[in-house]
Specification:
The chain is mainly alpha-helical and 579 residues long. The chain is 64% helix and 3% strand. It is built from 19 helices and 6 strands. Helix 4 runs antiparallel to helix 5 and helix 15 runs antiparallel to helix 18. It starts with 5 loop residues before the first strand and ends with a helix. The N terminus and C terminus are likely disordered. It is a multi-pass membrane protein.
């Protein structure tokens, strides 16, 4: 397994599987899938308020709740992929479920009976009824379930195409994360410009129909590459193994043993062979109460162990590793909470500002996130081509800086983004007051929408550092047999961030005042105090940055012991190469 997987063709010549040849199919799937996701997600706040006539705070919470649910379902997809289905089939089936949800959502935008009638001339609007909202929620639920199978598996499946035991391919793996995120950003950029323009100027039928067709194309592209993929077999449910360790440790909670000597703890290479292909995890001295699960008692049979009573050191260290990762995971929540405002309140700011590039053409409000994507893409190119080679000379690290350092930089820049957003909102409201538009929320304020560029660009730069670093952290530090679940943790932090945004918006809206004195009013943002909300998030991010720095300072990297046979195999390959 240390070598790249191969298959025999019709001429009995072994053909390699995996490697760079598979990237066009995987990236094509990711590009089309993100075009579909972002194509209806970015401008959904406009659809909910403009087509279904929901109040702003209700629409914002609907959107963040959907985002939170979509980012939570990857735990289900990861469980299915790691337990029995494998990543390829999980991605395929989930994509089909997502396709059904997209078709349902498109039909709701096309058929008049599935949405409320247009507003009357006096701005009287009828809100969508329960039946119409039910169609929306079912469609969103299907897309959330579909994304739950796609998101945790695509990035892991792409990284699986490179053999980590080959030093050259391992370097390619870390470049893959940068370029995976680059392709994802490029498709988001296309969605935020072309698709959003179609939605605002042509119609929501076409605006949702195009992403639906893109999703169908992504399924075809992914399946087409089936013969070329390196497909790792599932090795059983990681959740079951973690539960077995907890149960075994609890059963032996009263056992007294010297756990400082790891030689006394149970090891079984045959039992762990399928879940430790890249090397076994070695014993660590923290969380010693879990080590009791590896203590052999007279009631245990070491030759045929019951995993609910006796576990190996490797399995115990899998659980310890995930526990050690959790504080770093939690630090990523508030960054998502901060960036979530781009698709809600920042978009509403943009809708109230002058977006004209010419007398006849104006930028769609949702397309302002193009600045987030272009700054993110530019930062990725700068990071990969310029920053890493320079940093490598000073640090000696192959990737320039550690993923923990990369994440810390992202946290700092995100803090600056929300801090700047507060001052920009003051400037926008000042323009409304000067021009006598403070009581006219539907009038365009004569201030350029490009005032919002700094906050969008800073969020993009922060994402290039923090999100990719976060993804690298999960993939590198998670036990090898739990890679899908590790990627699911990345999306789970996005879920938690989205729900935190919902909670924060709800609390601020409930307790910050009544009517137009509210920080986040339903009908007139000009009379609100959105800048206070941005600065509240900034303060929370400052506390979060301090918390993260403490966690990163005391974090212990995953300890791995490479198998003797793998070292011998690698030495033989190198010897043959020299000969």
């Amino acid at each position: 397994m240390g070598m790249m997987m191969k298959k025999k063709g019709n001429n009995n010549v072994e053909k390699p599987q995996g490697g760079m040849i598979t990237m066009p199919f995987i990236f094509a799937n990711e590009i089309c899938e993100k075009l579909a996701v972002v194509g209806f997600g970015t401008n959904m706040i406009s659809y909910l308020t403009g087509q279904l006539h929901l109040p702003l705070t209700k629409a914002a919470n609907t959107l963040t709740n959907f985002g939170g649910t979509s980012a939570m379902t990857p735990l289900i997809g990861a469980f299915i992929a790691d337990s029995f289905a494998g990543r390829f089939w999980t991605i395929t089936i989930a994509s089909i479920i997502y396709q059904v949800g997209m078709i349902s959502l498109t039909l709701s935008a096309v058929l008049p009976n599935l949405r409320p009638p247009p507003c009357k001339s006096d701005q009287t609007c009828k809100e969508a009824d329960l039946g119409q909202l039910s169609i929306l929620y079912v469609s969103l639920l299907l897309t959330a379930l579909g994304s739950g199978g796609i998101r945790p598996c695509v990035v892991s499946f792409g990284a699986d195409q490179f053999d980590e035991n080959d030093p050259k391919q391992k370097t390619t793996t870390w470049k893959f994360f940068n370029w995976y995120y680059f392709c994802m950003g490029a498709s988001i950029l296309l969605a935020n410009t072309v698709i959003v323009y179609v939605q605002d100027n042509v119609g929501w039928g076409w605006g949702l129909g195009i992403p639906t067709a893109a999703m169908a194309l992504s399924i075809f592209a992914f399946i087409f590459g089936y013969p070329l993929y390196r497909k790792l077999d599932p090795v059983g449910s990681p959740f079951t193994r973690l539960l077995q360790v907890c149960v075994a440790a609890y059963r032996k909670r009263n056992v007294v043993v010297d756990c400082d000597d790891p030689k006394l703890l149970y090891e079984n290479e045959d039992m762990d062979a399928a879940i430790s292909l890249g090397g076994r995890l070695v014993h660590t001295n923290n969380m010693k109460f879990l080590d009791k699960a590896a203590v052999v008692t007279p009631q245990d049979n070491p030759k045929s162990p019951n995993p609910w009573r006796l576990n190996t050191v490797h399995r115990i260290e899998e659980l310890k590793t995930l526990i050690r990762m959790s504080p770093i995971w939690a630090a990523g929540i508030l960054l998502i909470t901060a960036s979530a405002q781009q698709n809600t309140f920042s978009l509403q700011q943009a809708k109230s500002m002058n977006r004209h590039l010419t007398l006849k053409f104006q930028i769609p409000a949702a397309s302002m996130s193009v600045f987030t994507q272009t700054s993110m893409l530019s930062t990725i190119i700068f990071y990969d081509r310029i920053f890493v080679p320079i940093a490598r000379k000073f640090t000696g690290l192959e990737r320039g800086i550690s993923f923990l350092t990369r994440m810390g930089i992202g946290f700092t820049i995100s803090l600056l983004a929300t801090f700047a957003a507060g001052f920009i909102e003051i400037r926008r409201k000042h323009a409304a007051i000067v021009n006598g538009l403070i009581d006219k929320p539907h009038e365009i304020i004569p201030i350029s929408v490009f005032w919002l560029m700094p906050q969008y660009c800073l969020h993009g730069i922060a994402e290039a550092f923090m999100s990719i670093g976060h993804l690298e952290f999960f993939y590198d530090q998670a036990p090898e047999s739990m890679r899908s679940m590790a990627t699911a943790l990345f999306w789970l932090s996005i879920s938690a961030g989205s729900y935190t945004s919902t909670l924060l918006v709800t609390l601020v809206h409930s307790f910050s005042g009544n009517g137009d004195s509210n920080w986040l009013p339903d009908n007139n943002l000009n009379k609100g105090k959105l800048e206070y909300f941005y600065w509240l998030i900034t303060l929370l991010q400052l506390f979060n940055l301090i918390y993260y720095l403490v966690c990163a300072r005391f974090y212990t990297l995953k300890p791995v012991q490479v198998r003797k046979e793998e070292v011998k195999e690698r030495d033989e390959v190198e010897l043959i190469g020299h000969v």
